[in-house]
């Protein structure tokens, strides 16, 4: 075999091996990008699975997600109704509630600031303008300042949104 032909054959073989490696999938079902970040919501074990009534407990209160539109949360504009109760389950009205959506894998939030308003009594609050501009894992942090307190406490849910 001549030197130029051998070189072409070698480059072809290297190219085929590289292409094969790029297109192969792991038998382990690895769904991570080269940075180790999961790329599929189905495989992302960091997410909370949305369910009506799901809750997260803080130091002195619990936040319950009573409903969401759409449900489960999705890319685009979302709304939620949450309820804040003390550790005994009594509703907490008149809390100051902030909501911060943040995408940890991309280190950014949303350009749209969510709006929180009291939704009657029983510790219910409406969250509107909850905007997720892209698919992926989103951490939604609820910062709650209880009546009579000056310090906010945080609880966070993590939702993985499909594209």
UniProtKB/TrEMBL annotation:
The UniProt keywords, alphabetically, are: Signal
| Keyword Nucleus in record | no
One Pfam match? YtkA
Q: Which InterPro entries match?
A: YtkA-like_dom (IPR032693)
> Which region is the signal sequence?
1-21
Region Disordered, residue ranges: 25-45
> Per the record, where are the segments of Low complexity compositional bias?
25-36
Residue ranges of domain YtkA-like in the record: 69-141
Has UniProt tagged this entry with the keyword Signal? yes
In its UniProt entry, what is this protein called? Answer: YtkA-like domain-containing protein
